[in-house]
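Protocol step 4 of 6: structure prediction from sequence.
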Amino acid sequence: MKITDIKTYLPWGGTRPETLVKVETDEGVFGWGGSGMSTRELAVEGVINHYRRFLIGKDPMNAGALWQEMYRSQYFEGGRVLTAAISAIDIALYDIKGKVLGVPVYELLGGKHRDIVKGFVTSYVSYGPDLIDDVRSLIGQGWPAIRFGIPDPADGISEVFEPRESIAYVSEWIIKVREAVGSGPVLGIDYHHRLSVAEAASFCQKMPSATLDFIEEPIRDETPDAYATLRSMTDVPFAIGEEMSSKWQMLPYIERGLTNFARIDICNIGGFTEAMKVAGWCEAHYIDLMPHNPVGPLCTAASVHLLAAVPNSSWLEVRTPPSRSIPGIQDHSDSTPERRVIFPKQIELEGTYYTVPSDPGLGIEIDESALVGQEYRYWEAPRLYREDGSYTNR
């Protein structure tokens, strides 16, 4: 069997573009993969087209060797754009292998450890009295873990974000939510790396110990020593890793105890080939996977197979449609009308979990006719700036 073509599509998923890749073979078997590099899809497409030139004619069953060839074939190693492209191709190769052998992808990874993959959900309600009601409702629905977010600007373009103002009112309302729901529910927050070390420490210190079960991405990940400093200033568990693009980038966070939940994104970390290596490494350090999952049904499917195949799983990020109209909050779920057309067969959310599928490959179907001819729709994340006019972290 040989690879005969690699096609890249950049469809509109409802709120932003997606990057989908189809790997075709001379035996008529094909596989689908995807990249998680949001807002820079054209850059990823360029890398995939470059890899396509030397992957045509190769055996698609040799996913591990092809991963090494893609990663090591250029002098300038690594980088998020390169590994996002590798991720998409690698996932598609596993989809092909599963279809050829007639087994789901998790069987290629050692078999399944669980029959269902539990999810965690985000409350979209603004900080205030309604937030308590919303969290109570989510607990009543059976969600095992609930995350708070920092809403994007309502204008969708740019807005002022002052960290000190944010941490003051956010911490106040999280304390009230914890008091209202008791110690049982798992509560966390994603600060979207918008804080400095001092700000993140101050935020955590404003709340009684055990108010939060995790804080996700409080600061940027470029400097592990900064996270080590923050680690010494708070006892709140860290959930880190969604931006990371290789086992090497994850190395200090695992080896130095700088993360407690590994937020890897299978569509960015390097596909199944790299994700399984990171998962084993995390297992040796008693760290559970808590995958990032923001970019549609393909990422969901790949993540479900990954978590089925590892012992160290906590929860998979689930994007549910907003239960009410909230300014600035868009539907990033797998069930947008656009995604329903593109993915006529998905791994469906059943309440608060996904049942691990038994179909060969990823177990999803993509309507390629819905992709052909779609013009790329440019989307840019909102810019954030301080009151003095300077830009701050997105």
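Step 5 (inspection) to follow. The chain has a mean pLDDT of 93.
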